[in-house]
Amino acid sequence: FSTVDATAADVDFQVTRDPGTAVKCAVKALDAKFAVVGWKVVDIPPGEADGTADGGRTVSQRVTLRTESLSVSGVVDACWIPGAGK
Fold first, then answer.
1. For residues 57 and 16, what is the distance between their CA atoms, to the nearest angstrom?
2. Is 36 left (phi over 0), alpha (psi -120 to 50) or beta?
3. For the residues 29-43, what does the mean pLDDT come to?
């Protein structure tokens, strides 16, 4: 996590999923009182298995959130497989 300025924050995170599966993650930025000051749903497309230790299951992401005031932390609130459970 890094604060760009009072209007933006960068959140870095990793997601582990089956390589052929698309995932969505809700990412939020919080202020010093834990109020949400920025929020975004990030689409993570399916990938391909590769030669890495986990076969391409883990992907790194960086998302820039627009914020309404200065943020002090960024978190992944939830991740899910679109259309699962229908």
1. 5
2. beta
3. 98
